[in-house]
Automatic annotation (TrEMBL):
Belongs to the class-I aminoacyl-tRNA synthetase family. Glutamate--tRNA ligase type 1 subfamily. The keyword Cytoplasm applies. SUPFAM superfamilies: An anticodon-binding domain of class I aminoacyl-tRNA synthetases (SSF48163), Nucleotidylyl transferase (SSF52374). The lineage of its organism: Bacteria, Pseudomonadati, Pseudomonadota, Alphaproteobacteria, Rhodobacterales. Catalyzes the attachment of glutamate to tRNA(Glu) in a two-step reaction: glutamate is first activated by ATP to form Glu-AMP and then transferred to the acceptor end of tRNA(Glu). It comes from Paracoccus shanxieyensis. GO terms for molecular function: ATP binding; glutamate-tRNA ligase activity; tRNA binding; zinc ion binding. This is Glutamate--tRNA ligase. It is found in: Cytoplasm. InterPro entries: aa-tRNA-synth_I_cd-bd (IPR045462), aa-tRNA-synth_I_codon-bd_sub2 (IPR020751), aa-tRNA-synth_I_CS (IPR001412), aa_tRNA-synth_I_cd-bd_sf (IPR008925), Glu-tRNA-ligase_bac/mito (IPR004527), Glu/Gln-tRNA-synth (IPR000924), Glu/Gln-tRNA-synth_Ib_cat-dom (IPR020058), GluQ/Sye (IPR049940). Residues 342-465 form the Aminoacyl-tRNA synthetase class I anticodon-binding domain. One of its GO terms (biological process) is glutamyl-tRNA aminoacylation. The gene is gltX. It catalyses: tRNA(Glu) + L-glutamate + ATP = L-glutamyl-tRNA(Glu) + AMP + diphosphate. It is an enzyme of class 6 (ligase).
Amino acid sequence: MTENRPVVTRFAPSPTGYLHIGGARTALFNWLYARGRGGKFLLRIEDTDRARSTPEATEAILKGLTWLGLDWDGAPVSQFEGRDRHAEVAREMLANGSAYKCFSTPEEIEAFRETARAEGRSTLFLSPWRDADPATYPEAPYVIRLRAPREGQTVVRDAVQGDVTFGNDQLDDMILLRSDGTPTYMHAVVVDDHDMGVTHIIRGDDHLTNAARQQQVYQGMGWDIPVFAHIPLIHGTDGKKLSKRHGAVGLHEYAAAGYPAAAMRNYLARLGWSHGDDELFDDAQALEWFDLPGIGKAPARLDFKKLEHVSGYHIGQMPDEDLMQEIADYLGETGQNPLGPVQITRLQAILPVLKAKAKTLPALLEQGHFALTERPVQIEEKALTALDTVSRGILAELTAALQHDSWIREDLEAAAKLIGERHGLGLGKIAAPLRAALAGRSSTPSVFDMMLALGREETLARLQDQAG
Ligand code: GLU
């Protein structure tokens, strides 16, 4: 039993060129489970498909994990590099009788299947070499096959799915080592997981049937079977299997859309796992709460509204310093210019206002546009209508009035109010030309917040630019 050993989990992606949102969630679950228990979280790149396994494809996965804030222990393990060890184990299984040499050719196997089909029998291949006397072995290439039990059942005790029973007559003697000496994927996974000391395998339920066959390899070697937890795959908004037509499936697309990593961790943790009614939580809580019984059996659906909500919460909660870093990362990720020192100072000044409302980083930057733009401020057409002659006159008066007042909200408000009253206009009416002059836009934070963030000199210069 593996229950009492320190927890070791792993994420074992095949390099596909990017980190899929489902893979990111699998990685997160494994990370939370291990880190929440003082265990290890390992990474194995299943790079046996040489054509797809480019360094760039691996790099994309590491980059995705790093962006998400998931750190792993030790260097990533390359499955391909372990091929000698995989072969060695297959030979050990030959020696202990849990595997056998099969000399059947592809043509013979095909002929077997055709006959079986014609006779209405199962087409699962039954090798004639399973019980053959080694004295009868030909001088010919062979594969090494698992000697799987033919009778009875194999039960996968899954922490999510419960006991899942497979009739052994449905599981054939799978190939462990091909005739060219290369291991099969199914075999390599078991050897790697055993050698890496993995105690808990948390992965998508598309691997559930594999678990039954992999379990037989563990048994063949007399190895401890890890705890399996097969999690339902993520579905799209319509309840169908997630695909590109539902929207972004690559984690990098979410990063580029400006969802902070902390929000993605929270959102992904809730995709298929729950802790009571808790929807919004931080890493410390997730690490404390995450467990296998909280994983549901029904597929979780992507819900972009919920993601926005979670994202808004995390942006609002984030310390300013971290948020500035997220913004810098986001700009880098999307190929935009980094912020200059003046932009940083102004954005920092308005950040408490912006972060209370924004749901994504681009939405935050959009509201903070006035702090990032420079004079002369470009005035959008919609905002231009607020700058008629009367309004320009008001801006001139205000510029004069604000020369000497102290730069605090009460005084700014009082000055604007006074001038408004002089013209029989409320603050609301005064605000439109001020927004236009300060930001060039009609939708902005409050004009006084903008003035405070910009400071006296810049505010007056922007007002002066538009004053008539
Ligand atoms: N490489 C497999 C995949 O990307 C995962 C295998 C496993 O977790 O056992 O789907």
